[in-house]
User: What shape does this take?
Amino acid sequence: MVDPGLVVVDKSPGMTSHDVVARVRRLAGTRKVGHAGTLDPMATGVLVLGVDRATRLLGHLMLTEKAYDATIRLGVSTTTDDAEGEVVETRGTGGVREDDVRAELARFVGDIEQVPTAVSAIKVDGQRAYARVRAGEQVELAARPVTIHELVVTDVTLPEVRVSVRCSSGTYIRAIARDLGTALGVGGHLTALRRTAVGSFDLSVARTLDELADDFAVVPIADAARGTFASIDLDEEQAAHVRFGRPLDLALPGDGAHAVFAPGGEFLALYEPHGARARPVAVFV
Assistant: This one.
């Protein structure tokens, strides 16, 4: 069995995130493997997995920003807002100009309210939305606040539009394709999606499953924590308190979770500010 840490996979098309988890479980020799946010079977790119104790980091990693490269096809709407769904409407795009496309996409940047795609994994009365849709139900989801930090139009060759997006967790790139098509009056859907980064983990450190089968590489849990969260190095007395899950008389710089380390570099826990003190979010020792 391998040491606890993160595995950064470059997912191939056609695989579900669960397929990747199952393969990594076999490679790692443990059932204790999870992922930090799914990728659709059609999508490729960065999928971050945790092994052993590092699975407890995943819930915090899921809250970090993500980056994608995407291709949008205007003029065709589908049931799933991507190429895997059935076509429900086709319209000509002859009246659409490149300037119109760029102007509408610019409106998505910033804090927006986005209606998730109906075939998302969001639960509706205890059941996944996609399961309800597949059962023939009409599902309408409420808009949710998301943040598009950056949206760069890399190419417009109508009816195709290529974009690079950096966004908050919970953003649906399929919904951007759908909403762009709606704004232009011609419909649209996503034809390709590649996730290029999850937080600080990008394609430069991602490896395919075939590569991992030849040389299984794990980002050690201490390195993963330092690369993801603001880091605090403690003295021996503070580290002893952390091992018992006690609050610390320590003012943390900034909001959110901070990774705290023993003097020798051992990753101990995630702590968050609580007034002038720090309190544990998750202890890993």
About this structure: The mean pLDDT is 91. The helical segments are 17-28, 58-61, 98-106, 129-134, 173-184, 209-214, 221-228, 236-243. The chain has three domains: 5-64+200-220, 66-197, 229-283. The two ends are 19 Å apart (CA to CA).
